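Q: I have 511 residues here and want to know how they pack in 3D. Can you give me a structure?
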Amino acid sequence: MVIWPLVAVLVRSLADVGPQDAWQILTRGSVLRVLRFTFLQAIISALATLAIGLPIAHALARYEFFGRTAIRAITVVPFVLPTVVVASAFDALFDSAGLDLSRSMTAIIMAHVFFNVAVVVRMVGGHWQTIGPSLAEAASALGASPWRAFREVTLRRLAPVITGAGVIVFLFSFTSFGVILILGGPTRATLETEIRRYAIFRGELDVAAILALVQILVVAVLAVAGARFQRRFSTSSTSRAKAVRKAPASLRAWAHLGLVLGLIGLVIVVPLAALVERSLSVGSGYGFGNYTALAESLTLLPVSPLGAIGRSLLIAWAAAMVSVAVGMSAARVITKGGRLASVLEAGVLIPLGVSAVTLGFGYVIAFTMLDFRSSIWIVPLAHAVVGLPFVLAALLPAWRGIDRSITDAAASLGAPPRQVFQLVEWPLINAALATGAGFAAAVSLGEFGATSFISRGSATFTAPQAIFRLLSQPGEQLRGQAMALSVVIGLVVSVLGAILERRRGEAAVLL
């Protein structure tokens, strides 16, 4: 479900398309414009996310205040929302404000900042709060200005993790699909949307394969760069140190905190509020008509919007169960060590660095001859592949933290392996396993890229697909239903995110 589809893309792009044909494809004016825009919007999105996320990370890392935990949880909500819901929120915001920002770079950047600010807050803030102020205070005592003390002391220690966060945000923006598809449209296409357009609508699989190959290469380079910065961060990390936070003690500190809270409200809360407001707008007033209409059948959709939610929940449950089953088996092998363990760990983490659209395109190439694409199981299996790294990220630290002297003692007393697992290992890993399953389910509920390639018929028609179809058609009634459906699926995912936030562990650090 991972290696075979990616190999199929590589074979199609390298074997079926010669170097001269590949060069002609890449030097087309339309392809060059897509490549330029893909890189440009990803760079601007990463810089804008850092500019907004760093002040928020600083305030949450340095200040202890009432409601801090709730504010920290709010910053995570956008990241666990489906991308089509994020796009719907900004579409609703522009509609409420009477702004014509759709199909613009501004809309895309705003949505990417909204979606990725949690990455900066979590990665940078988690490290920042463990950096004590003693070194900066010593620099100030020696005559350094506050800015110089920050630049030469604190910023130097934060540089690896800030760079790593920027690389990750660039990667997420570079492979963004739902946001580009809804807010960008055909005039603001990226590699993600063009792979889908050439493969599905134009039938030019050779062009789609070359674009997918370019994306795989860029993602591979970014993954290597991100891993290097992560290693530097791990080397200089003070994660074992106690968090250093205190209540704001001056008017300047309170003003700083108030400014940051206002920034959180503007960047995160306002788009979500606009989405809820648009979902309740019915005619010239407000009501729940758009929500009650979710149970009605539409010729536009193979099932009712409510039915699509039910199918999304069922697929998410199946995907989470598959991810848990495979994740537990993989974790047992990996924790035993050896060459196979290293290869397996790297292989399981591949979906984190591969675009879902590229993976979906690989399914089209690899499974067409087997007619596996017509199976209802391909969608939950694809979702399980995407969710598996999150299960493993939650499970591996818990399993590695088990004191093996306890399991060895149980075995020496005559307990068979199954009983050792049930009585010793299971009580120590079940909480981490539940966290990983929750992440896998949340990822499945929002998955849209691969699903748009492989979903066939009503049995695998998901809520993100329904939202996209409703938004792609004119009419206030359909738009209102799309907003209502976005709120419902957003609430489901947000509840999962809130539960995971309360059970913070290694998986929450990964998020």
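Q: Anything worth noting?
A: The chain has 23 helices and two strands. The longest helix spans residues 29-62.
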